[in-house]
Amino acid sequence: MPVVWLTWGVLLISVAVIVIIAGLLGAAIWRRPGMPVVAGEKMALLPDEGGLRWLWLGVGLSTAVLLISVIWTVKVLADIQSPASRPGVIIEVTGRQWWWQVRYLSADGRGFYTANEIHIPVGEIVRLKLLGGDVIHSFWVPQLAGKMDAIPGQINETWIEASRPGTYQGQCTEYCGAEHSKMLFQVVAQPRAEFRAWWKRQLSSPSVPASVAANGEKSFVENCGGCHSVRGTEAAGSLGPDLSHLMQRRTLASGILPNEPSMLAKWIADPQGLKPGNLMPAVKLSQTERAGITAYLLALN
Amino acid sequence: MASTDYERRPTVDTETPDLAERLKRLWETAPGLYGWLATVDHKEIGLRYIITAFVFLILGGIEALVFRLQLSWSNLHILTPEQYDQLFTVHGMTMIFLYAGPVLSGFSNYLWPMLLGARDMALPRLNALSYWIYLFAGIVLYSGFAVGFGPNVGWFNYVPLAARAYNDGPNIDVYALGMVLLGISTTVGSINFIVTFLRMRCPGMSINRVPILVWGTVTASAANIFAIPAVSLAFLLLWMDRNVGTHFFDATAGGSAMLWQHLFWMFGHPWVYAIVLPAMGMVSDGLPVFCRRPLVGYSVVALATVATMVLGFGVWVHHMFATGLPGVSLSFFSAASIIIALPSAVGVFAWLATIWTGRPVFTTAFLFFASFILLFTIGGVSGYMTGSVPVDWQLTDTYFVVAHLHYVLIGINVFPVVGAAYFWFPKFFGRLMDERLGRWNFWTMFAGFNIGFFPMHISGLLGMPRRIYTYGDGMGWNWVNLITTIGSFLFAVGVLLFVWNVVKSLRNGAAAGENPWDAPTLEWATSSPPPPYNFAVIPTVASRHPLWEDRLGRADPQRSVVGHGLVLAQGREALGTTPLDAEPNVILKMPADTLVPVCLALAMTVLTGGLILVNWLVATLGIVLIAIAIGAWLWPSATLGETAEVSRDG
Amino acid sequence: MAERLQQHLPVGAMDTRASGWWAMIFTVFTEASLFVYLLFSYYYLAVQPHASGTFPEGGPPPIGIASLNTAILLLSSVAVGWAQLGIEHNKKWRLVIGLGIGALLGSIFLAIQWFEWGDRPFGLSSTPYSSLYFVITGFHMAHVVVGVLILLALTWWSKLGYFNSRRFAHIHIGALYWHFVDAVWIAVFFTFYITPLLGLKA
Fold first, then answer.
1. Which residues of B43-69 are buried (b: 16+ CB within 10 A; e: fewer)?
2. Which of A75, B481, C72, C201 has its CA 20 to 30 A from that of A250?
3. ipTM of the assembly?
4. Does B5 fall in a domain?
């Protein structure tokens, strides 16, 4: 990728400059024996001449290097500003305190919401529209692209493309409040067929076994539905992440916990302990309610 | 007593002990508490600035050490997120606003009149005012922090996070109004430096003969004049959004969050040059003394200083590269941010050439000045790297930038400042600092700094974002952070060694004469410490190196003259000269000690307090007190030669 | 060996050799910068998307009364300038009268603008435009208030006989501030009253 070459280029130039200047500094200091200090006495002076042509030489070389860097930078910037081909997928990502709301849009108007884990097809351009939901956040998945801020009042567009399948780590990189440190996300790149299958599944309502639903769905809607949503139920809150296919995700709580039953139970019991200051309160639940809700969530596949 | 003549032909004479005694009685500060509060002596004010700034440096350093502990390993719980957020914000605010600018103001304040051959700064009362406002603003800014309401959303204070909707306590109000108050201090200080530069240079000191420190400070001051209103306005608009219902920054009501960023960085970028250019000037003046030859390329260095500052106004968007601005905009600012390295390169090569063609004198000051060149280079190249937009999109908001900013701020401000302390301490106090302890000081600071901050380039390249209070076990950042924490503690030890050296040397440092380093500029022609009036008779200069002229073998027969010149002793008097060629054109009557500046500063603080507490009665009281103080200040005074002479007008 | 300098040097705060004069020049620069940033905020917000008729809110502000007010302010500068020329020729009464008229006209400007404020169909917290309107004209008004106080002080000091044709630095310094405040008004007036008519509106 042109950015990688440019980064290596400026890095190597930088290291070279440091080495050269350090070398010149050392040579300049040690080429003549130091003069002894006798405080208060007049010490010898050297004539006020020479040195200027080295200054011009150094400045001349620096100018050349800097001009080349400018031209190279502008070229790479122009190259990556717009992608090589039309995007295959368009995803809207909204930064929220402290999680990522993700919305997939399709040409026929059928879209769906998910959170914190973004799936993309391998080898295709994906356009991202970044929105600021509350304060300024910044979307960064280092292995795939540079950063782009999500700013309230405007829509910033960027694009990513994964050339290899895999899971790529991302993190919020604009200080956004108490839990800025724990606003992670993942980008999962899959072969097209798998991606299509994932998309289809996301569109549908989760199928929960009747017994689990009997115990847990009502409690869930009552206690959690004000903030969370699950397709096909009455839970339609939009303050917190959509949980429709929660068990498909690799992590919980915006990338900070592995998606395991014990972790899920811990999170529901004490969200403030795990992510102090986050906007999910510790809801008072009876033992049966808690067990029912947990079982219900564990069935949201 | 005779009233002031409209004009006279002043005497030209040689300095005598009688004259010295008479001037001493005219110029010395009154004793006791009154004198302490009322002094307008630039040397006393300069020292206060330096000491106060160092107190803030240490406070800011302690804040950093505490949160470095929290970050030394993954998933630590030494600090809560809220505590961490206040600590890193107050650390930034303290270092950038309460240490870095004021310490340079302090050195400049003390040295400028002597470097320029003058009796005092052009506006001594304004000088006192700028210090008192700085002190009171610092106290205001810390008062919130002291009771747990410190600013907590970063020193850059982005909206909407700083808006009422997301930050309801008084934290941001204290920050905003305290900063507006502090901005007044910096502004009036800057005005003072510019006027002094244009009007107080001694005869013969044309502008191509002033020391580079003077170039650095006057350039920074000119920049401040144009830049500070941007941030003061931003803070005022934010305060209004938060308290009286305006909608400047509220995107949900049609305002703009980006407007904050533009206003803030239009100030913020020039500011970071303002806090390093005077320090670079100190190196440009001090290093040649320890290379036993004048600076190579004086004229280009002076021009490069100005060029850096001018270009510095055209790069602010590089703090906003990831905000979604159009490509054409990004290209322009990226190019400017890379090109600005050029005048810096001029400085680096000038210093290198000076050492190369000179002969080093290995004092502690030399060690700090020489090492600064290396640290400047490292800080400079990391800036050059982030100046390239596509590269910046990976590096911005990571620890790579934290590494960059500390190399430029500690490397280009702190190291020269400590070197300057070793250099000018004998002049301020008449004693030498301990050179052996100085070496320990230097090497501890140098090693600690590099061990602490160099690894941050690596943690940044490994993807560690800024401003996080913790990080997960599997990120791979643990060891790098641990090393950084250890290095920062070692650096702190180095700073403590410096403070100890100062205290120890004040008590029993070896006596220093007038010119212990055999240096060339005018301040070294006064006693150590200097008399309150600086020069008994006004010097005349004929070159950049008045005290080296004879030994440098100048072809020009003109020589600087120090002990013989204009006698201005009918009261506190100073010489005003023309802006370009420094020809005498007025005898200025200078103010004596007065309590008005401290009272005015207090009145401004009362107004600030009233606004913070949203108490309109207190605020109105503040305004009334301000009006009274200004009236008292500006009341035309016969002693200062501001009024018609009664005896001559009938 | 003592001798005397060949030339006579003025003593004290002599016209534009006074340190205060130079300080006022740079104060003007910094205050001018403040207004540059205020007007930058106006223009920056003006080019953001707004619902029709909300920027300026209620349509372009009425230019008639503002133009009259502009003329009044410019006239006050003329009066102050007349006073300055007067004292240069030692005409002390002209100084007092000119300054007094300047202060009076400045006060009339303030009164008219206060009336204009009351006449606006929006409040401070209505929209970003309304915030800009009151804050920017408000900052200017505050500068005019300070200017009027300065002119009143100068008038009083003139009446007390402090100044003559040799010593009147205070007059020049205060007058410079007043002329600056008038010049800023031109920029503010142009921004609020003229640019909407040139097409800068939602």
1. bbbbbbbbebbbebbbbbbebbbbbbe
2. B481
3. 0.96
4. no
